[in-house]
């Protein structure tokens, strides 16, 4: 609790924290409402819900080569601010596309808005790394995890309420307003120049194709030379599969197995159950993470969560399903907080954007392929139980991989220097 009070004395962190809060709130409401809109209007075509989720993940593959380069070479604060303002504008455009009712146009707007939003996180991560001390990284990750858990707890309920009382249009207006508030908070931050521009001033004319690809390649070599960082990022690919599955599996298991007649109402309860578990787990994990090593927390969290995700796919009644999901939710924050606190500690500030520029596309590629697989195969070749086995098995696989690899690498010792990471033998 003392560390939480101390970190909120940092005025830049406070603005960034609430910018992230408002942005997440609107996005959760908008995405949830739009998903239920698709399921209502196209109830016999569940593939539309999967395709919509793909439109949130697929754009990463279109912009991944430049996202990290911009975050390291251009003004990080301006990038984050313009991401918010453009996302707000495109949310309004989405309302017009839904009104017209042409699905290709709707998916195109979703794709474009998502592509722009991909520039936000590397820039924000770089700013946070620069304005916080190493001792605050885990605390910041814990707070962000608590915010995410609150939206897990209330997000579906807020999205459904917005959808029921204001319709899909009203929900997207809320989404747009949240981006505007986030952008204003981001603009109000007084961030030191060395944090905004860690590699000095660059102009747009400097960022020609040759420069961008050279810088992008430099980021790749930075990761490959750091064995610890490389091992962590290999695991992120599996996390992409997990994210892809979890984006649609909870609704699918309710609609097509456990509660076909009342899946909307029970999805709210599921959100409360899962969110409560993550919130409790976030508080517990924030305390545990101060007493154990990051890699130990990750391994335990992955193995326990993966086991209970697999078991939840075979639940034959709602009560058992909710209990199993609740247990898996309690241990999940151990993984997220450990990664969030560890990554900034092992990445040089000058390379943070390019490292994040590689992490996101690798995860999104796996997520997009997973959603494509679900769109093609669900109810045709595989059942819901198989999906839960794939996702839970992925978590178990990463946990076992980290159990084998990470302790051995850490025994060698890791030193991060200005130009490249060096692994000491």
TrEMBL record:
Its main location: membrane. The keyword Transmembrane applies. It comes from the Bacteria. Keywords: Cell membrane, Membrane, Transmembrane, Transmembrane helix, Transport. InterPro entries: MFS, MFS_trans_sf. It is a multi-pass membrane protein. The chain crosses the membrane at residues 12-39, 54-72, 142-162, 168-186, 232-254, 266-287, 294-314, 320-343, 355-376, 382-404. This is MFS transporter. It comes from Heyndrickxia vini.
């Amino acid at each position: 609790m003392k560390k939480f009070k101390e970190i909120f004395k940092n005025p830049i962190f406070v603005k960034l924290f609430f910018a992230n809060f408002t942005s997440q709130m609107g996005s959760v409401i908008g995405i949830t409402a739009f998903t239920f809109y698709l399921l209502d209007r196209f109830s016999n075509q569940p593939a539309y819900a999967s395709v919509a989720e793909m439109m949130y993940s697929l754009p990463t593959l279109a912009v991944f080569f430049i996202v990290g380069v911009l975050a390291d070479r251009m003004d990080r604060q301006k990038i984050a601010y313009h991401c918010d303002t453009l996302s707000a504008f495109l949310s309004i455009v989405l309302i017009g596309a839904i009104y017209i009712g042409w699905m290709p146009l709707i998916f195109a707007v979703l794709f474009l808005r998502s592509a722009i939003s991909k520039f936000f996180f590397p820039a924000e991560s770089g700013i946070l790394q620069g304005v916080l001390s190493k001792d605050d990284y885990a605390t910041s990750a814990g707070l962000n995890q608590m915010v995410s858990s609150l939206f897990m707890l209330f997000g579906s309920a807020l999205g459904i309420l917005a959808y029921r009382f204001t319709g899909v249009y009203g929900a997207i207006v809320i989404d747009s307003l949240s981006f505007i508030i986030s952008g204003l908070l981001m603009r109000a931050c007084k961030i030191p120049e060395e944090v905004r521009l860690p590699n000095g001033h660059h102009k747009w004319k400097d960022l020609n194709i040759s420069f961008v690809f050279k810088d992008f390649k430099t980021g790749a070599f930075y990761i490959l030379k750091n064995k610890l960082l490389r091992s962590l990022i290999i695991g992120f690919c599996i996390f992409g599969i997990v994210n892809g599955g979890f984006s649609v599996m909870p609704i699918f298991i309710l609609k097509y197995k456990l509660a076909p007649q009342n899946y909307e109402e029970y999805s709210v309860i599921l959100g409360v159950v899962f969110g409560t578990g993550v919130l409790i787990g976030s508080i517990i994990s924030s305390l545990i993470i101060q007493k154990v090593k990051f890699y130990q927390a990750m391994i335990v969290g992955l193995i326990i969560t993966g086991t209970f995700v697999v078991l939840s796919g075979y639940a034959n009644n709602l009560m058992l399903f909710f209990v199993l999901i609740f247990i898996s939710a309690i241990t999940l924050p151990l993984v997220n907080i450990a990664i969030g606190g560890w990554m900034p500690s092992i990445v040089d500030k000058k390379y943070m954007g390019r490292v994040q520029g590689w992490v996101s596309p690798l995860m999104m590629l796996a997520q997009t392929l997973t959603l494509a697989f679900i769109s093609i195969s669900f109810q045709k070749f595989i059942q819901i139980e198989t999906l839960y086995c794939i996702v839970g098995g992925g978590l178990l696989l990463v946990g076992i991989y980290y159990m084998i690899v990470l302790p051995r690498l850490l025994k060698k010792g890791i030193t991060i220097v200005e130009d490249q990471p060096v692994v000491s033998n």
